[in-house]
């Protein structure tokens, strides 16, 4: 899929393709790390039983903190790329050439994005230090108040997340800023396109409108397919059904990266055509030229009549 984005992006899309690649890469990495944990939340307690890679060092709090930090690093990076995609679309649609030049410059990766990623890594690890205390005290609490739970979690790797002032500030403030930037960019794009001073051609304007609509649809999907299930499982359903609801919720959320890339491949015209051409070439050995499908290489099939001895 990423090969299609890199190979078949048009000139009008420009460096925006790299933001698509970054967005999809961190999105897939976030859910891949989540799947590796095989977590089992024990509601209503703030304790999660971990499986998968957590069994490598089940008693190491440091390993759990690093694993926890890596998940949030990928998640925050994914959200940052979504915000950057909106900013880039705003710059292109409103014809802000200076902003486009800056966001398309490779030096921006070295001097801004790499230091920013290092900062995200540091903040997420500090978040893990605040959010994941030593679990020994919690084991004692379970042993005194709930012997069945204490016996169930004995010897298993545990993740205990505590809500503190730091992780609330670190998570919610950047999220609100990102939503504000996305909303402002969307409003600016539609406002500029409605003005008569718009100097873009019909084809370019239609492409930019398609890309903005694609971002809006993806944001709507995040709200309906991600935020809403989380709200239902964490707030609406009762404690009795919350564990199974949470398990189903995460399996549903794991489909989001597939939808996101499939939507990009089918909704944006140049990627839709590129994906079709790549499939024709790789599977059937055919190539599409000027809307006509032609055989790229001779078939290896030999009929029985031609292969029979004379």
TrEMBL record:
Alphabetical keyword list: Membrane, Transmembrane, Transmembrane helix
Q: Which InterPro entries match?
A: 7TM_GPCR_serpentine_rcpt_Srh (IPR019422)
What Pfam family is a match for this entry? Answer: 7TM_GPCR_Srh
Q: Where are the transmembrane segments?
A: 66-88, 108-130, 172-190, 211-237, 249-271
From the Swiss-Prot or TrEMBL record, give the protein name. Serpentine receptor class gamma
Provide the species name: Bursaphelenchus okinawaensis
Q: What is the lineage of its organism?
A: Eukaryota, Metazoa, Ecdysozoa, Nematoda, Chromadorea
């Amino acid at each position: 899929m990423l090969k299609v984005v890199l190979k078949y992006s048009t000139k009008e899309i420009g460096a925006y393709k790299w933001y698509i690649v970054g967005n999809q890469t961190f999105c897939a990495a976030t859910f891949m790390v989540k799947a590796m944990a095989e977590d089992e939340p024990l509601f209503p307690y703030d304790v999660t039983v971990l499986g998968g890679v957590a069994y490598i060092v089940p008693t190491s709090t440091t390993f759990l903190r690093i694993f926890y930090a890596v998940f949030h690093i990928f998640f925050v990076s994914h959200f940052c790329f979504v915000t950057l995609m909106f900013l880039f679309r705003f710059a292109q649609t409103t014809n802000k050439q200076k902003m486009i030049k800056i966001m398309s410059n490779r030096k921006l990766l070295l001097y801004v994005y790499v230091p920013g990623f290092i900062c995200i890594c540091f903040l997420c690890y500090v978040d893990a230090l605040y959010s994941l205390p030593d679990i020994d005290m919690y084991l004692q609490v379970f042993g005194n108040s709930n012997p069945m739970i204490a016996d169930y979690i004995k010897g298993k790797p545990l993740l205990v997340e505590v809500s503190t002032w730091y992780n609330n500030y670190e998570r919610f403030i950047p999220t609100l800023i990102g939503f504000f930037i996305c909303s402002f960019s969307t409003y600016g794009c539609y406002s500029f396109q409605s003005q008569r001073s718009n100097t873009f051609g019909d084809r370019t304007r239609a492409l930019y409108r398609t890309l903005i609509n694609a971002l809006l649809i993806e944001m709507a999907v995040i709200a309906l397919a991600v935020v809403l299930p989380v709200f239902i499982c964490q707030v609406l359903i009762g404690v009795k059904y919350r564990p199974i609801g949470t398990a189903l919720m995460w399996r549903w959320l794991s489909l989001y990266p597939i939808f996101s890339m499939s939507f990009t491949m089918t909704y944006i015209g140049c990627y839709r055509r590129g994906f079709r051409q790549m499939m024709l070439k790789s599977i059937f050995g055919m190539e599409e030229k000027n809307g006509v499908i032609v055989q790229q290489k001779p078939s290896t099939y030999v009929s029985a009549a031609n292969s029979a001895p004379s």
